[in-house]
Design goal:
mainly alpha, MetI-like fold
């Protein structure tokens, strides 16, 4: 087995330290922001007595370190608290929002892989040609453009000016109402297929195209550039030159012998890109009003909903650490020279 139990134990301990550090830093930052969250909890027409009672209920009358200890105790026992904005359990809010984010990220990741790797292979095969130059220029531009700016441009161009695709939300309300659509897994594309609801399926795909393309831009360009660089290095190796001299078909050499040697560094790059997409989804969701965890965190931050913001940051930190661990494990499985 390429992965030892000792390695998994160390990564678990490291994950616990990272999550604790994220909790501590996020908690302290949210508490030093000059705001009055007790007003949000008590309501707009609350009396002074009700505001003071809200402060006691939210433990805002205690020292900040005591607030952190109480919050940490609740987290350990699975109590993530109640959102001060929605008045619903934070964990249930995050789970319902997380499925929307994961659906968007998975579709964007598929787009990035299906387009980025072939473009990188094509650029390596046509090295120093005009096709290679075009691909390199486009990938540099695509990787350099801020995701929020690209989201605004795509939304204006294809959603508002041309009217080709919806520019906001996850699905139209009238479609949900007229078809009596009920989410099962939280992934609308899967749920609509399970229920045989063609109208919701088409409508949800139309809504996800623009934000998925925007979110896929950076990992697509990164995977294309990484594939090109590694493929060029592999093509210059002696065994590949020997295969070409023996007269083997180029397609067989490229896709059977060369591409296999590019998988290890490419998977590491794609894994880090997947982690980046979780962060990039925050801005994309905010622009496209996508009801995911990024939109939920943004609305909570604007409302000074400290527990909800901290909960979102914890989930993102856990996901990022798990993704990095999975990348190392997959790398060790693919490359037998790597031992963990």
């Amino acid at each position: 087995m390429p992965v030892s139990k000792e390695y998994l134990f160390k990564r678990t301990i490291l994950l616990a330290f990272v999550v604790f550090g994220v909790i501590f830093i996020t908690f302290m930052i949210t508490r030093v922001i000059p705001a009055r969250p007790e007003l949000l909890w008590a309501g707009p027409h609350a009396t002074l007595e009700q505001i003071e009672e809200a402060r006691r209920q939210l433990h805002l009358d205690k020292h900040i370190y005591l607030q952190f200890i109480l919050y940490l105790q609740d987290l350990i026992f699975g109590n993530w608290g109640i959102s001060w904005r929605t008045r619903a359990p934070i964990l249930s809010d995050i789970i319902s929002s997380l499925t929307a984010t994961l659906e968007l990220i998975i579709i964007a990741f598929i787009i990035a892989v299906m387009a980025g790797i072939p473009l990188g292979i094509l650029a390596a095969i046509k090295k120093h040609g005009w096709i290679d130059d075009v691909i390199r220029v486009l990938t540099v531009i695509g990787a350099s453009v801020p995701v929020f700016w690209l989201a605004l441009i795509v939304q204006l161009a294809f959603g508002m000016w041309l009217g080709l695709l919806p520019s906001a939300k996850r699905v139209d309300e009238w479609v949900v109402i007229t078809t009596s659509f009920k989410p099962i897994t939280g992934f609308y594309i899967i749920d609509s297929m399970l229920q045989g609801n063609l109208l919701v399926l088409v409508n949800s795909i139309q809504h996800i195209i623009l934000p998925a393309i925007v979110l896929a831009a950076y990992p697509l360009c990164l995977s294309a550039r990484m594939t090109r660089a590694v493929m060029i290095e592999v093509l210059s190796e002696q065994h590949v030159r020997s295969l070409m001299a023996w007269g083997l078909p180029q397609r067989l050499i490229f896709f059977k012998y060369c591409l296999k040697n590019t998988l290890a560094p490419l998977i590491a790059s794609l894994g880090l890109s997947f982690g980046y997409m979780i962060i990039g989804a925050f801005m994309v969701e905010l622009v496209f009003v996508w009801p995911g965890i990024g939109f939920y965190a943004a609305m909570s931050l604007l409302s000074f909903d400290y527990p909800a913001v901290t909960g979102c940051v914890i989930i993102v930190a856990i996901f990022y650490c798990i993704i990095n661990t999975l990348i190392d494990i997959i790398h060790s499985v693919i490359d037998p020279r790597v031992k963990l």
